[in-house]
Amino acid sequence: VIYLNRAKMEAALDSAVLAGVHELPGNPDAAVEVARSYAVANGLREEECVFQVTANNRYLSGTANRLLGLYFARALGFASTQVEARSVARIAPISSTGGVVPFGVIEGNYSFGQMVCLKEGAGDQPFPGWFGALRLGGSGANVYRDNIKYGYPEEVSVGDIIPIESGNMSGPTRVGIEYRINQCDHLPQCNIYAYVESCPRIIIVPIIRLYDYDEVGHPSRVRVVGFGAFLVSDYSGNGNESNVWGSFINYVIPGRTGGEENDFGLYGSQLCE
Question: Rounded to an integer, what distance in angstroms lies between the CA atom of residue 17 and that of residue 34?
Answer without folding.
Answer: 8
